[in-house]
Amino acid sequence: MPLYIKSVEKLINEFRKLPAIGPKSARRIVYYLLKLPPRQIEDFARSLIEMKEKVKFCSLCHNLSEEDICHICRDGSRDQEKICIVEEVGDVTILEKTGRYRGLYHVLGGLLSPIDNIGPTELRIPGLMERIKKNRVSEVIIALNPTVEGESTAMYIKKIVTPLGAKPTMLASGLPVGGDLEYADEITIGRALTDRREI
Amino acid sequence: MPLYIKSVEKLINEFRKLPAIGPKSARRIVYYLLKLPPRQIEDFARSLIEMKEKVKFCSLCHNLSEEDICHICRDGSRDQEKICIVEEVGDVTILEKTGRYRGLYHVLGGLLSPIDNIGPTELRIPGLMERIKKNRVSEVIIALNPTVEGESTAMYIKKIVTPLGAKPTMLASGLPVGGDLEYADEITIGRALTDRREI
Description:
Two copies of one chain form a homodimer. Chain A has 199 residues and is an alpha/beta fold. Helix content of chain A is 45%, strand content 14%. Chain A has helices spanning 6-16, 23-35, 38-54, 71-74, 89-98, 125-135, 148-161, 186-194; strands at residues 56-57, 64-65, 79-86, 103-107, 139-142, 167-170, 197-198. The first copy, chain A, has a five-stranded mixed sheet with strand order 4-3-5-6-7. The first copy, chain A, has a two-stranded antiparallel sheet with strand order 1-2. In chain A, α1 (6-16) crosses α2 (23-35) and α5 (89-98) crosses α8. The termini of chain A are far apart. At the A-B interface, α1, α2, α3, β2 and α5 of A face α1, α2, α3, β2 and α5 of B.
């Protein structure tokens, strides 16, 4: 006799794979879904598929976009001579929310990490260098998390952008060292943007 | 210019509706999903729909089931004269995991709560009384959370099952008062089952 219902356990396992969801939360979520009308579940499933179909990554900055070029790169009113470098797409939204930045972005997709075999070629460094040359970028604002990997990636970027004539700057302190950009408040991030310092 | 991608925000909102998921976790989950291959997203969406299509509630005990009658009610080797009353379907799995109970179950679907207008007719009390009479149930084990609503629901059940000839018992203490059955460990729940006391 089975202790569990197969289709229920399968879905619990799908939820367990997601970040920040443990086994008890996964079970709780699935029991909650079981009580919902079928229509709502179908909406949920459709939103999943739709997002995956519609959302691409901008071919210039690798930010999320429903078009080939994202709305930030398309926006001619933004300062084309400034590029802000972030680790993940989520960081673009976090910085945009501060309303203190009107330049472009470049999403690295990770940080340098010799332990995990992530070198410059694994990140989107070649594309960044191309954009710096083409846009005659005067400033590269490095907005990475203040961790060991973040700082060493920043140092690497400083080394490669300086010969291209771009001034490297980074977010001012104000972010607690060892912390995560994702959990800082908007005012702190806004101030850190304004107070960015040359490195 | 939109700050957000519509299909991404829509999915974040779907995740925010789920229990135990806050706005930051929802965003984190969706960015994680964006990195997965489309195949895995389709599997996830299909698991959702499939579960909703396949899973019904047992017409006798209201436990989850892919058939009209669940595997526990169908199991002739189980003690038909004992019924264990639980609040939610998840509680059946928790009790089954202890391996200490071989009777049947009855899922109430909630607790009595005058404030929320939940009276005996909102719960599955009539079905319970019918089953007690039909199976000539000798013992009704009340396995509800040791909260105010749980205790008062237990008292109500004691009052209605006693005239039907069934002895009401409840889980022994061992569960911290004011706590939640879902977060207790299996050994504690197993001991509470063995030490159940008459009320």
